[in-house]
Amino acid sequence: MEWNNHTLYLALDTSMLWDKYCLIRISIIYRGRSVPLTWKVIEHGSSSVAFETYVPLIEAAHLLLPSQANIVFLADRGFADTSLMKYLDSLHWTWIIRAKSSLIIYRRGQRPIRLGHVGVQKGHALFWHNTYVTSKKYGPVHLALGHPQGVNEKWVILSNTPTHVTTFDAYRLRFDIEEGFLDDKSNGFQLESSLNRSADVLTRLGLVLALATLYLVSQGTEVVHTGKRRFVDAHWFRGSSYLKIGWNYVRRALVRGDVLMGYMRLDPREDPDPAIASRKQDEERHRLSFRTSFKVFKPYATVGN
Length: 305
Prior knowledge:
By secondary structure, this protein is α+β, with helices and mostly antiparallel strands. The chain folds into two domains: 178 residues, Alpha-Beta Complex (Transposase Inhibitor Protein From Tn5, Chain A, domain 1); 95 residues, no CATH class. The protein is 30% helix and 26% strand. It has seven helices and eleven strands. Strands 1, 2, 3, 4, 5, 6, 7, 8, 9, 10 and 11 form an eleven-stranded mixed β-sheet that branches. Strand 6 and strand 7 form a beta hairpin.
């Protein structure tokens, strides 16, 4: 398969519908957007869901993905669960998960400490390797803790691979799934205008959204690849997502009678034309940097479960 020997980023997240249904989704992060891979809607009045509820989605995703692809799994702090970490380790996937400030860290030769008590100045980052988490002392896991300039809160990230400044860049890709939920709702498919009030029906409707997203992203990718982007995106640099480019091109083609692509494909190559909301914003993003310090602790003799 095309994605063998390439890196695939997956993101797990939830989104509420009418404060009554919870959409749980695992998506492939692709060129600034997310393409749904597995999903489920449950009648549940909270965006927080138990490991037993979403682990079948991970199992299904594992069966769908190329066996030789390098998988990096991203999740927000609501999923900082040692059961999830252990399961992902069993799949030999890399995982990067944001942690809550209440999480307790154990370090050999040091007293336990809550992450919220670790002081980090703005513009600085700490990297602790070979630590253990929760009273179960699960690990070793690796910690990245940073406080970017202009941001009010610290970023506390855990991973099963040694952390570095690039860990923050990888985790930041998780926010693309939130853009996907926005496309589902007010910025595209208007999901919340649906009159369906059945978790099973909404789950099946998710297949329609997933296929539509995949097709539009594929079409948008093809439009950019063939040099036709400025037919539907007049910016000098790309200002629209691949989904929006594909969507606008389909509308244009239907009016003009142009030929549309008859297949769906996610090109594994690097994005040749990354989106830029504005020159100033792009320059500020690339100026993001930290003064860093690393500390490697000696692992315990036995690894906790």
